[in-house]
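The data layer described in this paper is built around a simple, fixed record for each protein. We quote a single record here, exactly as it is kept in our systems:
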Amino acid sequence: MIQRFLTFLFILSGLTGYGQVVAKIGMSPVLSFTPASATTPSSTVTFSNNINFTAYVKNYGNAAFSGSITVQAKRDTATFNPILDSVTIGATLQPNDSVSVGMSFTPNQGPAAFKSGGNGNTIVVWPLIITGTGVNGDSVRPVIWINDINSVFEFEKNQFKLYPNPVINDLTIKVQSNNQYKNIIIYDVFARKVKELTFKETINVSELNAGSYWMIINSENKSYRINFIKE
């Protein structure tokens, strides 16, 4: 009898330890956006557009969940992360079940908020259990692309090849497309403009101090950001 009781306690401790039976509420990686172009580099979304998206709360645990959950969307930055939207839902979820949550916001313009061209526009969507038994799980991090007259398309930098990089004197910019480009503006790591010139495929940067720089190459309707190092 004692041996059976000890065996029961051993099994119970296993269930409440490494094999704990619990609901774990996280976010499914599946999302849908309106307009869909909000998540593509060829976006036509601007700072005035309202962005709607559907996220999915999922029970990743091995026990059923019944209660209420608040889902919040925030900017993914340590210095400026206001809540973009917050929705509270009631849900009953069996293991692996999910429920949709509709969210919306208008991206705001500014150096600490959303940027044009999609650079750094990651948002964090995460759940918080308000009532019910369970643990909070993982978030999901979609990226929003915004296009306006000042958009900087960092992810299209493969249109250019820079060499040598690092560079000492002359930097060659090999264009991979037939676009016409107007000018080049070079910034240091503190975002200070240090050089501006008409676009040409070879530029001299010998006067720059050693360090990391980034350049903006402007065409008629787009701008492209590319990093380089000066030795």
In short: The two ends are 78 Å apart (CA to CA). The domain at 154-230 is CATH 2.60.40.3080 (Immunoglobulin-like).
